[in-house]
Amino acid sequence: MSIQQNIQSIREHIPSHVQLVCVSKFHPNESIIEAYESGERIFGESKVQELCGKYETLPQDISWHFIGHLQSNKIKYIVPFVSLIHGVDSYKLLEEINKQAIKSEKIVNCLLQMHIAEEETKFGFSKEELNEVLKSGTLRELKNVRICGLMGMATFTSNKEQIRTEFRGLKTLFDELKTGYFASESSFCELSMGMSDDHQIAIEEGSTLVRVGSLIFGNRVY
Ligand SMILES: *Cc1c(COP(=O)(O)O)cnc(C)c1O
Asked: What is the pTM of this model?
């Protein structure tokens, strides 16, 4: 199957309120162009250097999402052009994004990454950690950061009920925050969950942004 055919078959079951992030990490520009020519405009990358290289050489109307684990010292390279940073998982990172955003005279869109999987290795805030950040009140002082919602990754398992339960928990938290802490901020409206293997479950559980890589571009060669 070609990239174009893959996109077509994915598009068939994605409702119009859900955005497709084409995860192009480790794939060459030619593959991205093929997806671009099928009409895709949102691409996700997880390495700063790779993202910057692609940004410089590919069409300017691409909306670039950073979906990886971001290191503080690299934020400055992506802030000038990135559309959305999915994986923000510490207050320190938010502070640094804010600092770089001020320098670039920009408001940077971010999603808070929540730890919903059972694996220790996946990044993200615990509910307790997030509560502490929200309670401290200092988040609202970061004027150049816009919190657009939450992001999460389910456990890597074939147990679909477990995946569903984890996504459902994240959606519940999202709804609580949307009607609570973020009630006055209409920009808090995105829930990034679901990848190639579990995006259909994620959509059923309320995802608004699915991050799909291998189902579009094939397996990555690391
Ligand atoms: C790589 C990656 C994806 C895409 O994974 P696929 O299984 O290839 O769809 C989605 N989200 C994050 C955070 C990733 O790092």
From this structure: 0.96
